[in-house]
């Protein structure tokens, strides 16, 4: 057999090996190399991967995927899109539960809730001569805390069961007061001067505020101190929700800070992760909001404008 025939036979043999390997690899991936994802949720909904779209009509929705990490896009008519991060292992079943949130709807409201946050003041106790913290609505002026040294120019910020007391002059002391535990913690006063629009979260852990020199809002974290956050000072109206995150309305896209039309963006800010998540864009928002109040179940947001009240249902 001459060299030419040997080369042809070798080439054909190589092609046959490659073909057999390819078929074997295809069969391996198709039949053996997969894991199972089970998604439980109210059907119907669709699941999109990089390679295919799956319509889920049964519970659970069972999907076979090759091993690896995936970010899946889930859609359901009338509801906000969801993303699901999963890690699939060979021959194992991963179970996930998905809860779709209804697309927020805005309507007129005949009422507007009063925020149930008490206010507090410092006064001099007539009997002891010490400075005391009292509930401003308490006609009996019962002391909640005593202070031996007078706190000058106090900034008093209240949450649901906590008070943050910041001295803005002289010693610049600061105290974190727990009204339930009747305890006080002296903290380092690292707060800048001329704090603007400071609001304490319900659990007292976070304080969001700005200054005249800052482009971004500033977060005080009870556990980690002060840090600049990714939330820019734009046309923003916000309120802490019961989950200690900020619901906010803004005319600018929270991601790129660009105004789009006359609508308003509803977004949520997570101070723990310093993460701003757009929730929904209202293309035709009725009026310019001046204040918002989140309900305790976080299923609705009341919006106050100059001339009317609105309700955003979620």
Task: Supply database-style keywords.
Immunoglobulin-like; 46% strand; four-stranded antiparallel β-sheet; 314 residues; Neuraminidase; elongated; 1 helix; mainly beta; single chain
Characterize the structure shown:
This protein has 314 residues and is mostly beta strands. Helix content is 10%, strand content 46%. The chain has 1 helix and 26 strands. It has a 4-stranded antiparallel beta sheet, with no helix packed on it. Strands 8-26-25-24 form a 4-stranded antiparallel beta sheet, with no helix packed on it. Strands 12-13-14-15 form a 4-stranded antiparallel beta sheet, with no helix packed on it. Strand 9 and strand 10 form a beta hairpin. It is elongated. The N and C termini lie far apart (80 Å). The model has no long low-confidence stretch (mean pLDDT 85).
What can be said about this structure in brief?
With 314 residues, the chain is mainly β.
- Which bin fits the share of residues in helices? under 10%
Count of strand segments: 26
Order of helices and strands: HEEEEEEEEEEEEEEEEEEEEEEEEEE
How do the strands line up in the largest sheet? Answer: 3-2-5-6
Structural class: mainly beta
Low-confidence parts, pLDDT < 50 over ≥5 residues? none
Question: For the terminal residues, how far apart are their CA atoms?
Answer: 80 Å
Number of domains: 2
* CATH fold label of the largest domain: Neuraminidase
User: Biggest sheet, in brief?
Assistant: 4 strands, antiparallel
Based on the coordinates given, report the CATH architecture of the largest domain: 6 Propeller
What is the helix tally? Answer: 1
**What is the mean predicted local confidence, pLDDT?**
85
């Amino acid at each position: 057999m001459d060299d030419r025939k040997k080369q042809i036979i070798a080439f054909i043999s190589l092609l046959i090996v490659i073909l057999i390997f390819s078929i074997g690899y295809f069969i391996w991936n198709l039949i053996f190399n997969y894991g199972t994802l089970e998604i439980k949720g109210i059907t119907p909904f669709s699941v999109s991967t990089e390679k295919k779209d799956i319509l889920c009509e049964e519970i659970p929705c069972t999907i076979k995927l090759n091993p690896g990490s995936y970010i899946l896009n889930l859609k359901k008519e009338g509801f906000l899109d969801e993303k699901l991060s999963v890690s699939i292992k060979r021959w194992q079943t991963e179970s996930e539960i998905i809860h779709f949130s209804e697309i927020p709807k805005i309507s007129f409201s005949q009422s507007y809730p009063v925020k149930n946050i008490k206010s507090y003041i410092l006064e001099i106790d007539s009997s002891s001569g010490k400075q005391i913290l009292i509930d401003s609505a308490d006609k009996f002026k019962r002391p909640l805390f005593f202070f031996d040294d007078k706190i000058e120019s106090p900034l008093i910020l209240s949450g649901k069961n906590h008070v943050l007391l910041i001295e803005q002059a002289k010693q610049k002391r600061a105290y974190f007061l727990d009204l339930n535990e009747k305890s006080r913690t002296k903290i380092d006063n690292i707060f800048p001067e001329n704090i603007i629009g400071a609001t304490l979260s319900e659990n007292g852990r976070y304080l969001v505020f700005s200054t005249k020199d800052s482009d971004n809002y500033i977060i005080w974290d009870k556990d980690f101190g002060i840090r600049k956050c990714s939330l820019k000072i734009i046309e923003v109206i916000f309120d802490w929700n019961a989950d200690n995150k900020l619901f906010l309305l803004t005319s600018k896209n929270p991601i790129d800070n660009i105004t789009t039309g006359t609508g308003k963006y509803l977004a949520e800010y997570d101070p723990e992760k310093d993460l701003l998540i757009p929730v929904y864009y209202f293309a035709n928002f009725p009026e310019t909001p001046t204040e918002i109040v989140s309900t305790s179940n976080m299923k609705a947001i009341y919006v106050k404008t100059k001339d009317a009240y609105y309700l955003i249902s979620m």
